[in-house]
Amino acid sequence: MNRTERLYALVDELRAAAPRPRTVEWLAGRYGVSRRTVQRDLQALMEAGVPVRVEAGRHGGWFIDRDTALPPINLTAAEALAVAAALAGAEQTTPFSAAGPTAMRKLAAALSESAAEEVRALTERIHVLPARTTPGVLPIVERAVALQRVLWIRYADAAGQESEREVEPGGLLTASGSWYLIGWCRSRRAGRGFRLDRVLAAELRDEPCPARTVPLLDRALAERVRRAETLRSLSLDRRPADTAGPPGAAARPGRSRGGS
Fold first, then answer.
1. What is the C-alpha separation between 259 and 156, in angstroms, rounded?
2. Which residue, 45, 108, 183, 259, has most beta carbons within 10 Å?
3. Cα gap 201→127, rounded to integer Å
4. Chain centre distance of CA 207
């Protein structure tokens, strides 16, 4: 390992360990160099503006502020294409997709020139049909789920019959190309699934609501769903699958009973 590689490795190690510090002795043993070499490397990182800090004392050592030191984005061309295609497919129809364009611009700026060229070429062959979701509905649903607040909606079922509901949001679910709001319907006093493209209007209430997981809303549905593999590394609970909870009565997404 040359010095440049070691400097990157030191930053990665301190970031991974944060907020716990690493001693010079520990780092020297980790990379097979002298304590003096490590001390010189850490000093060089500080002078270069990397937010590495040292804490004195028995339990002190070197550490890094993770909030001010994001890791470099080293996407391969295939990974960049996957992100570009996913963001395009999510445009205007998927919860939290409003930030997609700015996210893609940031990713593109961090790509190598060859990967960026492949992404630019792909964009010429990807097209999006106009969204069916009612304008303004998605941001309100997003906030209701994120803030765990009661949501009022006007909803049209599969037959086109409209109704007004107050829903305690439990989460969002995707199935067969459609997105659903899963929650406790106060009108039906049961768990229900509401297809987002059938929500005609939505208003966020000030009233907070209890956290309701899919297993609490519908045990059978909880046994069928799984976490998206692309999101698993971000999950607070990394168990292989959701465990079943008490029986519920949520509508099965994709069936006519949804949102009934």
1. 8
2. 183
3. 27
4. 25
